[in-house]
Structure formats: structure tokens, C-alpha cells
């Protein structure tokens, strides 16, 4: 079919720029999207005042003693992490639904969008959109965890054997992510149940493989480029500070302190840019759905509010 990528991308940017309230939902949606792994290299210094390694024979006893004496702290930390994780999932899912609904309403001719209204109207769709992501994520874990365990238990040779399979699964998961994008829009736009939405997303991809894959590539390239642009100031902040600290043999911590303050000041900027990018990409996917399901004309049908599961 004749799919106008330029029109979709232009319209997605027009919606992103005109309805700036959607940026908030874009920032929220970022709570469950790319990026968030703390690449943490632990802070271990190799010098020997570590109570867990000073006497290897008593390591388990010492660990048990330490855990026993810090039970309340550990429980508090675990509860805090769980609450934070649940909050991020809730806000991220609502953010994604809000972007879909906002784009649908913008295409329906809405002069303005209200954060409170979009937030409230997104709530009834939460369990279906979250449930779909959880369902697919669970399947991914069931597939990947055995492969990883086999690689670990069999050593390097086993990992080399399963590496081609992992390389095949990566593009498969990319395609699945595009099905999910269309399925989420279907759930919100057509008020479908979770599995019905998944079937609808698969139907959209199956009947429009070329346009969906090309749109996926465009979105991937845009996300990578914007991600690199966001990362450049971080490198500019961190690398000179690390170089200055090493040049001074770690005796002057001022460069790291300045870098830390600059990094904290940059976080709101990075969140805003990421929120705008997420708004644009989600709008583009929603418009893609609309154009593929009713390509002859913009979608002006009413938005369903009654979202009973």
C-alpha cells in the first residue's frame, strides 16, 4: 500500500509541538522505557578491611551475622525498591496510554488537551496495557533465562553455541516490540481486551509488513541519534573530571564534585528531551495505526471513554 511516511512524521511533530502537555506523559512513559540500567561498577577497593573476605572460612557466618543485625534496614530498602518499581511501572504505563489518547484526541480535532482529563481517562486501560507488556515480557524471560543459564553452566563453548540463537532472537524481539506498539493503540482506540489487542497488533503487522518495519527503522534511527545527542553532554561532564582526578592521582576531588553538580543540573534537561522524543515516537506509532486502519482519511471518530475490561 502507499504509506506516506513524511506525512505521519510531520503530523507527529506538529502534535508534539502544539500539545506540550503531552511532554509530561512522555517523561512519565520514560519511566519504563530504555535506559535505566545503572551500569554500576561497584565500588570495591582491593584493600583488606573487608569483613567478608578477611577470613574466607567464616564468610558465611559473618554474612549471616551482618544480615541478622541489619534486618530492619534490609527490609526497609527492599520495600522502598518495590514501591519505587511499582510506581515507575504505573506512571510509565499511564504515560504511554496518555500519549496514545492525546494523539487520538488531537487527530479528532481537539483544540487543547488537559493533563488531568487524559490521566483520568487513561486509568481504565492500565491493566490491559500493563498486562500485555507483562505477558510478553514473561515469555521473553522464559526463553532467555534458560539460554543464559546454559551459557553460564557450560562455559565459553556453550555460550558460543547459543550466541547465534540470541542474535536471531534480538531482531525477533524488535519485531515483537512493533506488534506491541500497534496492540497498545488498538486496546486504547478500539477498547479491546488484552489478547484481542495483541491479535489486532499482529494483524496490522501481517497486513502491512513494509510500512511497519520501515517506520520501526525510522523510529530506531531517530531514538539512537537523539540518545547520542543526550549522552554527549554527559561525556563532556564526566571524562574531563575523571582525567583531572587521575592526573592529580586522586588527591583533588573538586573536579568530581563539579562534575556531579553539573550532572544533577543536566538531569532535568535530559528528561525533558527524552520526554519530547517519547511523545514524538508514540504519536508517530499512533498515527501509523490510524493511517493503516483508515488510510484514506484522518481519524475523526469519537474516543471511547468507557474502558471496562
Model description:
The protein has 309 residues and is mostly helical. The chain is built from 9 helices and no strands.
Topology summary:
Layout: H1 5-18, H2 22-29, H3 59-69, H4 71-107, H5 115-122, H6 126-190, H7 194-207, H8 209-247, H9 254-293
Helix pairs in contact: 1-9, 2-4, 2-9, 4-5, 4-6, 4-9, 6-7, 6-9, 7-8, 8-9
Element-by-element helix/strand order: HHHHHHHHH
What's the quaternary structure here?
Answer: single chain
Q: Biggest β-sheet: count, sense, barrel?
A: none
Beta-strand proportion:
under 5%
Q: Please tell me how large the radius of gyration is.
A: 24 Å
Q: Give the overall shape, derived from the CA principal axes.
A: globular
Give the helix tally: 9
Tell how many strands the DSSP assignment holds: 0
Chain-averaged pLDDT:
82
Low-confidence stretches: 34-53, 297-309
- Determine the structural class based on helices, strands and strand pairing: mainly alpha
State the helical fraction. Answer: over 70%
End-to-end separation in angstroms reads: 33 Å
Brief overview:
The protein contains nine helices and no strands. It has 309 residues and is mainly α.
Observed structural traits:
mainly alpha, disordered C terminus, 76% helix, 309 residues
